Amino acid sequence: MWRKLLSLRQISQRTISTASRRQIENRIAEKQKFFQEENGIPVHLKGGVMDVLLYRATMAISVFGTAYVVYQLLVASMPKKQK
């Protein structure tokens, strides 16, 4: 019983000690400086190419959806011809 507790304690100490050695560098300050920089680019596009692609895809879908809704409203407002 004591051996299991001792080995469990060693495992927990080992994982804690190895985790503290490989800490991840905190780069939040760099990101904040980059996104707050005044360079004429809107903040929602400062992330790079992927942000631009997502923005343009969203705008295209919005324009297409709006046009489709207007078309459907026009179709619904016109009475069907009866034969």
TrEMBL record:
<keyword id="KW-0999">Mitochondrion inner membrane</keyword>
<dbReference type="InterPro" id="IPR039297">
    <property type="entry name" value="COX7a"/>
</dbReference>
<keyword id="KW-0007">Acetylation</keyword>
<feature type="transmembrane region" description="Helical">
    <location>
        <begin position="53"/>
        <end position="74"/>
    </location>
</feature>
<dbReference type="GO" id="GO:0097250">
    <property type="term" value="P:mitochondrial respirasome assembly"/>
</dbReference>
<dbReference type="InterPro" id="IPR003177">
    <property type="entry name" value="Cytc_oxidase_su7a_met"/>
</dbReference>
<dbReference type="GO" id="GO:0045277">
    <property type="term" value="C:respiratory chain complex IV"/>
</dbReference>
<dbReference type="InterPro" id="IPR036539">
    <property type="entry name" value="Cyt_c_oxidase_su7a_sf"/>
</dbReference>
<protein>
    <recommendedName>
        <fullName>Cytochrome c oxidase subunit 7A2, mitochondrial</fullName>
    </recommendedName>
</protein>
<dbReference type="GO" id="GO:0002082">
    <property type="term" value="P:regulation of oxidative phosphorylation"/>
</dbReference>
<dbReference type="GO" id="GO:0016491">
    <property type="term" value="F:oxidoreductase activity"/>
</dbReference>
<keyword id="KW-0809">Transit peptide</keyword>
<keyword id="KW-0812">Transmembrane</keyword>
<keyword id="KW-0560">Oxidoreductase</keyword>
<comment type="pathway">
    <text>Energy metabolism; oxidative phosphorylation.</text>
</comment>
<dbReference type="Pfam" id="PF02238">
    <property type="entry name" value="COX7a"/>
</dbReference>
<comment type="similarity">
    <text>Belongs to the cytochrome c oxidase VIIa family.</text>
</comment>
<keyword id="KW-0472">Membrane</keyword>
<dbReference type="GO" id="GO:0006123">
    <property type="term" value="P:mitochondrial electron transport, cytochrome c to oxygen"/>
</dbReference>
<keyword id="KW-0496">Mitochondrion</keyword>
<dbReference type="GO" id="GO:0005743">
    <property type="term" value="C:mitochondrial inner membrane"/>
</dbReference>
<keyword id="KW-1133">Transmembrane helix</keyword>
